[in-house]
Amino acid sequence: MQLEFFDIPSPCIGICESDDKGHCLGCMRSRDERQHWKEFSTNEKQKVIKRCLQRKKRKQNKKLKAAQLTRQPTVKSATELNQENELDRQPSLLDPPKPSKTKPTADVETNIDIDTDIDFSDFEL
Questions:
Q1: Buried/exposed code over 49-80 (b: 16+ C-beta within 10 A; e: otherwise)
Q2: At 24, phi and psi to the nearest 5?
Q3: Residue 51 located in a structural domain
Q4: Where is region (Disordered) located (predicted)?
Q5: Are 34 and 24 in contact (CB under 8 A)?
């Protein structure tokens, strides 16, 4: 355990309302922990803060599970699943290229004359 040179400040964030279990909605301390905070030793204060973090995680997980249960999963047919898999699947390099769906614009030159467009005459290995 590290030596503590400074007093541990109160975890209060100014939202001082209690939930149904008596824990503060802001810092998640119990009523006794809030009332006796100044009397606790440094070690006890650290334990209270750890308990508060655990309570906060449990509360968040409970909300997350409740939200997941309220969402109804949609049932998809086999054809819908196959269509999604076809869209998600990466094309094979061995497959012939598919024609593009976009039409070339007038600005794009579609016929490339290899002999005149690229000059490799000064290229050396």
A1: beebeebeeeeeeeeeeeeeeeeeeeeeeeee
A2: -65, 135
A3: yes
A4: 55-113
A5: yes
> What's the structural domain count of the chain?
1
CA angle, residues 35, 24, 48, in degrees to nearest 5: 60
- The answer as to whether 44 is a domain residue is yes
Digit-coded pLDDT (tens) for 78-98: 667 666 666 666 767 777 777
Residue 45, in any domain of the structure: yes
Give, rounded to a whole angstrom, the gap between the first and last alpha carbons of the chain: 66
Cα separations in angstroms, 21 against 4, 31, 42, 122? 32, 10, 25, 82
Q: Are 49 and 11 within 8 A, CB to CB?
A: yes
How far is the C-alpha of 35 from the C-alpha of 39, rounded, in Å? 9
